[in-house]
Design goal:
83% helix; mainly alpha; 6 helices
């Protein structure tokens, strides 16, 4: 039960991800009307920053869990995930996002998801195998690019299983 603060961060992340999806869809639908809604951009930056910080806490919980269980693949992939997410956040904040950057980060997130999935298979915690399967499926979906929307929808059940893993650890 030592990981409950990180699990709570996961719950907050789950709550934040639903509106984030709505914001992404609304930005797509309202892209031609951006000049009419100047506060949407500022709210998006703040919302993304809060989501980023909560994601870091959640991921840090898995790095600590991996360290305790001597699952160094989980530690390494969690730390790498924090570094990639930090770089991604800085790129988004600087407005330097391009098609090349989107493809690069998508591939990086795909590889990290596959590595985390393999690391979950080595955990002896109930639900870890399910999280591993979901994480590998998300990684494969992201790499295929065609199935990338599937990864978005699979991320919600994965997040729920990961929260339960942190509560059970």
């Amino acid at each position: 039960m030592r990981y409950w603060p990180f699990a709570v961060a996961g719950i907050i992340l789950l709550i934040l991800k639903l509106p984030l999806l709505a914001v992404a869809i609304s930005q797509y639908l309202l892209s031609g009307f951006a000049e009419l809604f100047p506060l949407i951009g500022m709210a998006d930056v703040v919302f993304t920053a809060v989501t980023f910080i909560v994601s870091l806490l959640f991921t840090f919980g898995f790095a600590l869990l991996g360290f305790e269980k001597r699952n160094f693949l989980l530690v390494g992939s969690s730390v790498a995930g924090v570094l990639v997410a930090s770089l991604d956040f800085l790129v988004q904040l600087a407005g330097a996002s391009s098609v090349v950057m989107i493809v690069l980060f998508t591939v990086l997130y795909a590889v990290l998801n596959i590595l985390v999935g393999v690391a979950f298979f080595n955990l002896k915690i109930r639900g870890a195998r399910s999280a591993g399967i979901l994480s590998v499926l998300i990684g494969i979906s992201l790499v295929s690019f065609v199935l990338a929307p599937l990864a978005l929808f699979l991320s919600f059940p994965l997040l729920i299983v990961e929260i339960s893993i942190l509560f059970r650890a």
